[in-house]
Amino acid sequence: MEKTLINEESGEMVKTSVMSTITIDCVIFGFENGSLEILLVKHGRGIRKGEWGLPGGWIKEKEGLDNAAHRLLRELTGLNNIYLEQLKAFGDPDRFPMGRVITIGYNALIKREDYNIKAGFTASEAKWYKIKEIPNLIYDHNQILDYSLKRLRRRVRQAPIGFNLLPEKFTLLQLMQLYEEILDKEMDKPNFRRKILRMKLLVDLNEKQKDVSHRAAKLYRFEDNIYKKLTEKGFSFEF
Amino acid sequence: MEKTLINEESGEMVKTSVMSTITIDCVIFGFENGSLEILLVKHGRGIRKGEWGLPGGWIKEKEGLDNAAHRLLRELTGLNNIYLEQLKAFGDPDRFPMGRVITIGYNALIKREDYNIKAGFTASEAKWYKIKEIPNLIYDHNQILDYSLKRLRRRVRQAPIGFNLLPEKFTLLQLMQLYEEILDKEMDKPNFRRKILRMKLLVDLNEKQKDVSHRAAKLYRFEDNIYKKLTEKGFSFEF
DNA sequence: TCAAAAGTGTTAGATATACACCCATGC
DNA sequence: GCATGGGTGTATATCTAACACTTTTGA
Q1: Which pLDDT tens digit goes with each residue over B55-66?
Q2: Which residues of A touch B87 (CB under 8 A)?
Q3: A151 and A186 belong to one structural domain
Q4: Contact criterion met (CB < 8 Å) for B8 and A87
Q5: Whole-model pTM?
Q6: Which of B158, B189, B222 corresponds to the end of one domain?
Q7: Which own/partner pairs from B194-197 qualify as long-range (CB within 8 Å, at least 24 positions apart)?
């Protein structure tokens, strides 16, 4: 892996031996029927044909990291404007058996309703797996996933990002069940309601559920600019 | 930047054009005289000679990312066993003017007493800067530092990592002042004492300060295995 | 009328916050 | 004795956690 690169210190081109290849791998989360799921792809060719892994790909020459991740997600799901968060770089020298490849992990949160509408045209086989039924994955992808889940659990308590996994309009019980599933912890319905409503973060849509065989619940929406305004006033989301 | 690399999908070597170079940059925090400081280095050669930047360097062929960061820190400070935490990868295509270079940021926390003993032999000029007096730095290093500080502020409230910036033996007021400085927020002495002591995280050394012109304070020590045991019992550090 | 979920009320206990006050030591 | 920080006590407001209870709706 001898190659030309630039010495940051001197600004000159020098011959030196360092590792080089970089990829991006995405942990794409979805929430459906009360279960947290991630989207895996089946490797179509090569040594590990048939095994599952995180969707990923290369970064282009003039592309920022976040842009590359957005592009890869668009290619896979047909969706733009996905909530995205870089995890970190994974660079164990042995993580990839055929050479030194460093990968940058991303967490993506998508609304399953959007995915169901737009996706399906992808070439490589993709499938949603419940978080508790993840198979052995290629390379170090199980490790990346472990890290990803820990990060999601931490982040979901610090910032209002869970909404990215729910439909535009949702009920408080749906929101609570999302938290219960992500944090793997039972919660108290009355207390949850009060806590979230007290934040004044949600817009009451004055609409109700339809076609449910029980009392219809109010629908709410999360709006990012409300959160921003509250944050400016010193509010800090905590769960 | 045409070069040979491995297609992850197929396992075959393919010719393709992607970016390649990777560096590590470290934000090294210290705490002295009630001030949070970071260690910057002066660029000795090249275009931006004389300007200050974060210490960093290359990753070796068969070296993990964390190991590379540890090695760089050892080269710069003479210290082993530094508390280290990866931030994330910074990869704006224009961040480095002379070519595509992605850098992986690290936060390092060191005890100034150790540094003062071991350091000083380094070739490149290094200097501690108070966090409120940071000059303009090379490349995107101010951005990396902004991210680093936000991360430190978040982490210091979630995990007992602040101790890595204090001497082995410290008083509760020192600890409180560290928190006040990092979080940029005044705190109440009695309440801080109770809160931290209630956690039963600190070892009371049954020792007192010496040579102080006021009532001598008790000295405490933080021990990681106590924290681990508490964590196993469900304790979670929060500030 | 029953099941299922929506939604309200109440209370005991734990935490946070603010601040008054005494203690020990060197100068 | 006074300045400086060490250290204790206490009252109030707020939040958490547990759970009893009423309401609405479709089947």
Answers
A1: 999 999 899 999
A2: 88
A3: no
A4: no
A5: 0.91
A6: B158
A7: B195/B239, B196/B172, B197/B172
